[in-house]
Amino acid sequence: MKRFLKIYLDKPELAAMVLLVFLLVIFQVKSDGVFLNLNNLRGLFGILPEIGLMVIGVTILMICGEFDLSVGSVFALMPMTMAVFLADGMAFIPAFLIGMAACAVIGFINGYLTIKYDIPSFITTLGMLFIARSLTIVVSGGFPPLLPNDLPNWLFTVFVGPGDLFRMSFIWFVLVAVLASLMMSRTNFGNWIRATGGFLPAAKAMGIPTARVKIACFMLCSMLAGFAGMIQVLRLGSPLPSIGEGWELQAVAAAVIGGTALSGGIGAVLGGVIGAILIRVIDNGLVLSQVDANWFKFAIGFLTIFAVVVNSWLGKRAKAIKVET
Amino acid sequence: MTQPIISVRNLHKWYSGVHALKGVTLDFAPNESVGLIGDNGAGKSTLINILSGAQEASEGEVFLDGSRAVIRNPRDAMDLGIETIYQYNSMVPTMSISRNLFIGREPLKFSFMGMGIMDRRKMAAESVKAIADVDLHLRSPDALVGELSGGQRQGVAIARAMHFKSRVMILDEPTNHLAVKETAKVIGFVRGLKEHNITGIFISHNIHHVFECCDRIIAMARGEVVLDKRTEDTNMDEILSVL
Q1: In the A/B pair of chains, how many CB contacts fall below 8 A?
Q2: Using CB atoms, which residue from B78, B89, B118 is nearest to A187?
């Protein structure tokens, strides 16, 4: 029993999970049962993948010991780049690939500069936040291009599932989350990511190519953010240059709420996913409970701090439980 | 004399103007446990960094079993059978024992371009065995390294080096920051290396520790070897006088 308790107290995503269940009950009661009805869940699940995909990338990068503030801007840049090529008459797949390649390049630059010049990724990606946002507006020429009508919406945004509960984007989200989770827990690459973020000198001494591991994580993070942005643009039907503003911090908050440590080495993809769900649930639940929507940011801020405090406390409790080692 | 397992010839290292290693030439015999002592800046860390691949020599050669060895990075050294256990701990505290044992050398079920799915059952089974081999009693290979005591961590690091059939084990100040009891344990590990046919190079500030577990003592000062004797042919006063 003690051992069981210790294992679970040590799980960083636990606090977020408990909180999520707690909030679901509160919002369900406060909204007179509207919160968990089909229509509302459909709306919730429709938007969740967009922040969720971004959070997965941010979580993995944070486990690797780095940090990306440019995801919100990349979120807008990828669909804008794609839309410009689409408006030029290019087919979807090449335009999509160009957009993703742009994200990969941005991720590479973030990682390369951070490692080569040994600067905090906070600084490199802060710079990239402005650069990518500016590029988004520049390539659009100030007027967002019209999207053609023959886009593969069936692959990304149509409703599917029982009672049309989910959009296709949700399937993508689940798929990416499962793959990312398996990558972290089952593959040697996942082991290297955690070692690199957990204790860099040891990872280096054991011969792990830490620079390459970090750059790969930066690239993955940017590409997931760009992919998420494309899904939002397909849902909205128009590539607005302002989408994703402020999302970089929400994504970091989601990862932290889910138990990922800013210092690296600790965290799980599942935690990030729960953090993302929490953020969407709060946004939606506050409105349905007829609370002033301006409390949203307060709630996110409070939760971020609260989650870290609770996790730190739980970790100490877990350590204090003596089991034979 | 038998063929030395490692020979270094005329090793030099300059750091932007500082001549840290001034032509060191040494032979290490198989199964020998050698204590390397010296003050800060004596060049002992530089010497072992070159052997472990953390740094490259400015000049000079390293021979393994009589043939020239090129060690450019830690991985090269590990592939040659030279494992290094660092004073700051070569373990990732936020990961489990079994994951730590196999960092960078995970057994894979299948792989593509060096990436693949880890064989976790094999990792768990082999780490239990590896830990038992160094007489370390741990409940589970899934425990986090961060929860182990300093001595236990060094034990796991030594178990790792033994598991990968290392032939030369370099221990860089493994007894720093350890409690007295823990230190005794680590010294016990070093004594046990011989039974596993491993050559040990034990770096320490502490002359007492070196006398307790080494066959031969090398003292360095100002980038040069100043004393190289069998343990029974020297004493602490002599060593202190040359440092």
Answers
A1: 89
A2: B118
Asked whether the beta carbons of A74 and A225 are under 8 A apart, the reply is: yes
Give the whole-number percent of chain B exceeding pLDDT 90.
Answer: 3
Mean pLDDT of A182-206: 93
In A, what residues contact B, Cβ < 8 A? 10, 186-189, 191-192, 194-195, 198-199, 201-208, 265-266, 319, 323-325
Contact list, B73 vs chain A (CB under 8 Å): 207
For B227, the domain range is 6-95+165-242
Residue B234 lies in a domain: yes
| B215 domain residue, yes or no | yes
Inter-helix orientation angle A121-140/A71-87, to 10°: 30
Q: Is residue B149 part of a domain?
A: no
CB contact under 8 A, B99 and A204: no
The confidence band for A4, taking pLDDT boundaries of 50, 70 and 90, is: low
Residue B156 lies in a domain: no
pLDDT tens for residues A272-304? Answer: 999 999 999 998 988 888 888 888 889 889 988
